[in-house]
Design a protein that fits this description.
The structure holds two protein chains of two kinds. Among the domains of chain A are: 164 residues, FAD/NAD(P)-binding domain (3-Layer(bba) Sandwich); 153 residues, FAD/NAD(P)-binding domain (3-Layer(bba) Sandwich). Helix content of chain A is 29%, strand content 22%. Chain A is of the alpha/beta class. The mean pLDDT of chain B is 93. The two termini of chain B are 38 Å apart. Chain B has two domains: 171 residues, FAD/NAD(P)-binding domain (3-Layer(bba) Sandwich); 132 residues, FAD/NAD(P)-binding domain (3-Layer(bba) Sandwich). In chain B, a hairpin with a 7-residue loop joins strand 12 and strand 13. In chain B, helix 1 packs parallel to helix 6. By secondary structure, chain B is of the alpha/beta class. At the A-B interface, helix 16, strand 14 and strand 15 of A face loops of B.
Chain lengths: 620, 344
């Protein structure tokens, strides 16, 4: 794009792709009009991608999902992996343990469209099936001479470290534990995330000159590394220490200052400690009957670890119901398949203990469902006088995690949840001190931490370099024809193969999900609608023959009298009409369109064009 | 267009049809539609074991003559699967994208045969016995006098088992947590009831957890059940009978409370005023136990259909069960259950 050209100039230019085409071998008498590749910041184009590629919009890391799935169809696994890496430096990791907000948003899962595409496991397929020694793509910037310290080698820290080192800065990571990876290494069981996969991705995240110092304890003690000193030694400091403190169990009658019975009882502990100690190499022991209290991934992980440690009867106790807990359906399914019982509508109010202090049972109160909370989850309303006891030999409590803030020896502004407060520019109340991931937002998911780490890295770079160096644009590229076939719409969702039960419990490291073979990955990848393909009708060339409407498998092509244009310039509701004298245009309803290509193939005047619209980061 | 309210019932079983009958009785003018996923008119699922007694024509199982629906001005829409319920617009979205408006909705979809998560991979090698189609499929797969291995052994399955024994087949039950479902049998009583099954001619084996099911077509029998312990049992047909799981998936975005089933108050109303539920799909609030519970069996389900319809018409009648849920061992040593009674 030359400097003198504007977006509007390029947009108005039309290229006739069939110029010079041998018309004796094609049936068309019209000309298909497309635009050349261009980059747009127009609100309508940006808005179109946001509204029409729901998986990408839902992904906190902004992953270009349709693009990486399409490259799997093309058997370009390494490229698919690299497309993932543009947004997220941990594709093999997140392809196993992601919370999958993309799948909740997937158009294929909308009412009447069947099941969502197995996006997460396709990400894993890209990682598993890529060639050995594939070429890693890094858009390296020249060295800036700036030094940045990142505290915490978890997903947010690693993500930020990669992007900041790519942007030319000299990055050092300080990590409290002996191995980098944060909760990925210490909080997730190996049977869900093999460490060789994690190790390679951690290494790739830091290989652009990032120095990782492990065993470094931040704090205010004599031997601790001080935040105030780091602020002097580096041009900027980014805190990404995550949420490493278990939220205590709020039992009835327990007051501030009382000894926490979960810590006191020999056979009770917090899930975070249970998993962390296990992955530090400590020997963990559980009884035959294990009660896990909590409703997240950590609770389910603890329950599955307990089964592998020899427990016979493992139950997970939740306040609401399975429908409202923040874990994936697959995770619930696999846990139940292994024998975990999920028991709903109960809140723990006390621990029954014997004379030695051992917990013999958990006292619960029965709940009913209440209203919705702001985060979309449900309230649980305890029913008076409905207490009951569930006997158990071991109790594991995993009801949430919070940040540890007393490691900071300088005053940093906190929000009302006692998390570090950051401004629009990602910076805390202290100049040059940034924060990212769960340390800012409280406990969230790995993909949110990765996404936030990446977002803060760009903001930190902007602050350091005093200018924006990368901006988000929409890349618009003409496509010759449909990349899908109608038959793909009838492929059922492929479920990831798993390890047989007979060998699953032999140890703690046998991976429960074994991954897609090539054939399965292809079948599943073909299911993707490729929502980033935009079908448009050139009304100037349309002869209103209605052939496209006749072949459309859905009510996706409409005769309209007008189209609402929203305040931000994006298109809103279509004003449909059946009266010919009021028809102003024939319009493809992108909400309904499943990119089957039937309209494109049948159009006698070739007035339907396809362009690929993708979010793209451009140097400024 | 008629201004009469449109009352839509999802489910063409005992609860749904009883509700339709009462609704029509109470209001001659209202529009009533029953949405059914299956292809048949309302038929008696409880009598399906009779396929092994020679009753293989689906017409033999119909509860009403075919003209019943038109005579009573009830629209029965068969082969229509509800994909979603849009409560804000009061519309059902069917799988083929059609939308059906409603003023009041009764969900009476019942339950599908529950299959434990660990057996779902081998579902294609097992049979269920929940619909006419599945009953006939099993009938055709089973050679005369052949051997059935029944995993689980809920009361629906045991009802089938006693017919199979009566008609010359061999039945082996592999008991589990849900044997005798929906009866809850204490650990100490359990051996007594399992012994009663053997008195009835049913073999009971206890090899522990099932590991997998193998296809041995071409051999003497078509299936082999492999246990975690390494032991195996061969069968012509493997049927899974682990009780019912409520069919509520399509209600997940409807804004009503769901635990395992749809949560309803004693009047069978969900958390939305215009939506009721009846039958095996709902969990009813019970004050005494401070919790929601299921009520199973033909009598309960039929009564729920009746109560829900009356309440949809403005009454305020709570559901109360009349079924004694005791599993009985008769003088001859065999068992009997109130859930095996299914006639008015």
């Amino acid at each position: 794009m030359s400097e003198n050209q504007t977006d509007a100039d390029i947009k108005s230019r039309k290229v006739y792709v069939d110029e010079g085409e041998d018309f004796s071998t094609t049936q068309s008498y019209g000309r298909r009009v497309v635009t050349p590749v261009r980059f747009s910041t127009d609100a309508r184009d940006v808005g179109w991608v946001r509204e029409n590629v729901p998986c990408q919009a839902a992904c906190p890391a902004d992953t270009n999902v349709p693009a990486y799935i399409q490259t799997i169809v093309e058997e370009r696994y390494s490229r698919s992996y690299e497309i993932n890496r543009m947004a997220n430096v941990l594709p093999g990791t997140l392809g196993r343990i992601c919370s999958r907000p993309c799948e909740d948003a997937c158009r294929h899962g909308w009412a009447g469209n069947g099941d969502p595409v197995n996006i997460c496991h396709l990400k894993r397929a890209a990682s598993d099936l890529k060639t050995d020694g594939h070429r890693i793509t890094e858009n390296l910037y020249a060295p800036s001479g700036k030094k940045i310290c990142i505290i915490g080698a978890g997903p947010a820290g690693l993500s930020a470290a990669h992007d900041l080192s790519m942007l030319g800065h000299q990055v050092t990571i300080l990590e409290r534990e002996e191995v980098a990876g944060g909760m990925l290494y210490y909080g997730i069981p190996v049977f869900r995330l093999p460490r060789d996969v994690l190790d390679v991705e951690v290494h790739n995240s830091t290989r652009l000159g990032v120095q990782v110092k492990t065993g470094v304890n931040m704090g205010t003690g004599v031997d601790d590394t001080k935040l105030s000193q780091l602020m002097k030694d580096y041009d900027a400091v980014l805190m990404a220490m995550g949420c490493m403190l278990a939220i205590p169990l709020p039992l009835k009658g327990l007051k501030d200052g009382d000894i926490d019975p979960v810590i006191e009882a020999p056979n009770a502990e917090y899930g975070l400690d249970f998993l962390t100690e296990l992955h530090r190499g400590e020997e963990k022991v559980v009884g035959k009957r294990v009660a896990v209290i909590g409703a997240g991934f950590t609770a389910l992980d603890c329950s599955r670890v307990a089964l592998r440690l020899g427990a016979d009867d493992v139950s997970v106790h939740i306040r609401t119901t399975e429908k409202y807990i923040p874990v994936t359906l697959e995770e619930i399914f696999e846990s139940k398949r292994e024998g975990v019982k999920i028991l709903g509508l109960r809140t723990p109010v006390g621990l029954e203990r014997d004379k030695d202090g051992n917990v013999t049972g958990v006292r619960f109160v029965q709940n009913r469902l209440g209203g919705y909370r702001a985060n979309g989850r449900r309230e649980a309303v305890p029913i008076e006088g409905s207490e009951f006891v569930e006997p158990c030999d071991t109790v594991i409590v995993a009801i949430g995690q919070k940040t540890i803030n007393d490691v900071m020896d300088i005053d940093v502004g906190l929000d009302r949840w006692h998390n570090v407060r950051v401004g629009e520019n990602g910076m805390t109340s202290v100049d040059g001190l940034f924060a990212a991931g769960d340390f800012v937002s409280g406990a969230t998911t790995v993909v949110e931490a990765v996404g936030h780490g990446r977002e803060i890295a760009i903001k930190l770079d902007t602050w350091l370099m005093e200018r924006v160096r990368r901006k988000k644009v929409v890349k618009i590229e003409p496509v010759d024809g449909p990349l899908r076939e109608r038959a793909y719409d009838f492929i059922p969702r492929q479920h990831i193969p798993t390890e047989p039960m007979a060998t699953r419990f032999d140890d703690l490291v046998t991976e429960a999900e074994t991954g897609f073979e090539k054939d399965m990955a292809h079948e599943e990848a073909k299911r993707c609608y490729l929502c980033h393909m935009k079908y448009e009708i050139d009304v100037d060339n349309c002869i209103y023959c209605r052939a496209c409407i006749d072949v459309a498998p859905r009510d996706c092509i409409k005769l309209v009298s007008g189209v609402e244009v929203k305040d931000d310039g994006t298109y809103g509701d279509l004003q449909e009409t059946k009266q010919w004298d009021k028809v102003g245009a024939i319009w493809i309803d992108n909400d309904e369109c499943i990119r089957c290509g039937a309209c494109f193939m049948v159009c006698p005047t070739k007035c339907i064009s396809i362009v690929k619209q993708e979010i793209f980061y451009q140097d400024v | 267009m008629s201004s009469a309210p449109h009352l839509v019932i999802i489910g063409n079983g005992v609860a749904g049809n009883r509700a339709a009958e009462i609704l029509r009785e109470k209001d001659k003018d209202c529009r009533i539609s029953i949405i059914s996923a299956g292809p048949l008119l309302f038929y008696n699922r409880y009598e399906l074991p009779d396929v092994f007694k020679g009753r293989q024509d689906w017409r033999d199982y119909l509860e009403n003559p075919p003209e019943y629906f038109s005579d009573n001005n009830i629209t029965l829409r068969r082969r229509s699967i509800v994909a979603d319920v849009d409560t804000e617009r009061r519309k059902l979205v069917l799988a083929h994208r059609e939308e059906v408006g409603f003023d009041q909705l009764l969900v009476a979809t019942g339950g599908a045969g529950y299959l434990p998560e660990r057996l779902q991979e081998t579902a294609s090698l097992t049979h269920q016995f929940t619909t006419y189609r599945s009953a006939m499929k099993m009938y055709k797969a089973l050679p005369k006098g052949g051997r059935v291995v029944m995993l689980g052994g809920d009361m629906i399955g045991l009802d089938l088992a006693r017919t199979l024994i009566e008609t010359g087949y061999q039945v082996t039950v592999v008991p589990g947590d849900r044997t005798f479902w929906p009866h809850e049998i204490s650990a100490e009583d359990r051996p007594k009831y399992l012994a009663a099954l053997e008195t009835m001619g049913i073999e009971v084996i206890n090899h522990g957890e099932v590991e997998r099911i193998e296809d041995t077509s071409g051999g003497a029998t078509a299936r082999r059940v492999v246990f975690v312990s390494g032991e195996t049992v061969s069968a012509d047909v493997v049927v899974t009978q682990y009780g019912l799981a409520p069919m509520v998936d399509f209600m997940s975005t409807a804004g009503v409370d769901i635990e395992r089933g749809l949560l309803v108050n004693p009047q069978l109303k969900t958390t939305r005023d215009e939506i009721y539920a009846a039958g095996d799909v709902c969990q009813i609030w019970e004050q005494e136990s401070n919790g929601y519970r299921f009520y199973y069996g033909w009598r309960n389900v039929r009564k729920m259909g009746e109560i829900s319809a009356r309440n949809m018409m403005g009454a305020d009648v709570p559901f109360e069960t009349e079924v004694d849920e005791q599993l009985i061992i008769k003088d001859d040593g065999s068992i009997d259950s109130p859930f095996w009674e299914y006639s008015a």
